[in-house]
Design brief:
The chain is α+β, with helices and mostly antiparallel strands and 132 residues long. The chain has one domain (2-131). It is 47% helix and 17% strand. The protein is built from three helices and four strands; from the N terminus they run ααββαββ. Strands 1-2 form a two-stranded antiparallel sheet. Strands 3-4 form a two-stranded antiparallel ribbon. Strand 3 and strand 4 (127-131) form a beta hairpin. Helix 1 (2-21) packs antiparallel against helix 2 (31-50) and helix 1 (2-21) packs parallel to helix 3. The longest helix is centred in the last third of the chain and has 22 residues, at 85-106. The relative contact order is 0.16. This is DUF4377 domain-containing protein.
Length: 132
């Protein structure tokens, strides 16, 4: 039941952003509205990834998360194979694309630093701890 509610929430949020970005110019969505939707979607994705647990059965993994205006991700999201990883990847890819659209439409800027990718993981208290 939690998965169904989670997926429905994700679909509603992404649909709202997609529709908002597609509205005609006479009723434009503000950059503030776009960022608010992105922030809510980010929380949803991070909460879903946080439900994953590591053990001998489940492998720790990571994915580039976010879209910096000058290119590349903001961070790497850590998760395990204990959740529906295909669904998580779809959600993250959609989020990254929506954030890239926000960057272009709203003229976002950022530093051009590059986050460090994990080189491995340890598992402590059923949570993946990245090694850099």
């Amino acid at each position: 039941m939690k998965k169904i509610i989670f997926y429905l929430t994700f679909i509603i949020v992404t649909s709202t952003i997609f529709i908002a970005c597609s509205l005609p110019d006479d009723d434009p969505v503000t950059c503030e509205e776009m960022i608010a939707e992105l922030q809510q979607l980010k929380i949803t994705i991070e909460e879903y990834a946080a439900t994953s647990t590591c053990s001998e059965e489940f492998e720790c993994q990571y994915i580039a998360f976010g879209s910096k205006p000058c290119g590349g991700p903001w961070e790497y999201l850590i998760y395990t194979t204990s959740i529906d990883t295909e669904q998580l990847i779809i959600m993250v890819n959609e989020y990254n694309e929506l954030e890239n659209n926000y960057n272009e439409i709203c003229g976002a800027i950022s530093d051009c630093s590059v986050p460090i990718e994990p080189t491995g993981f340890t598992c402590e208290d059923n949570k993946c701890i990245p090694i850099f």
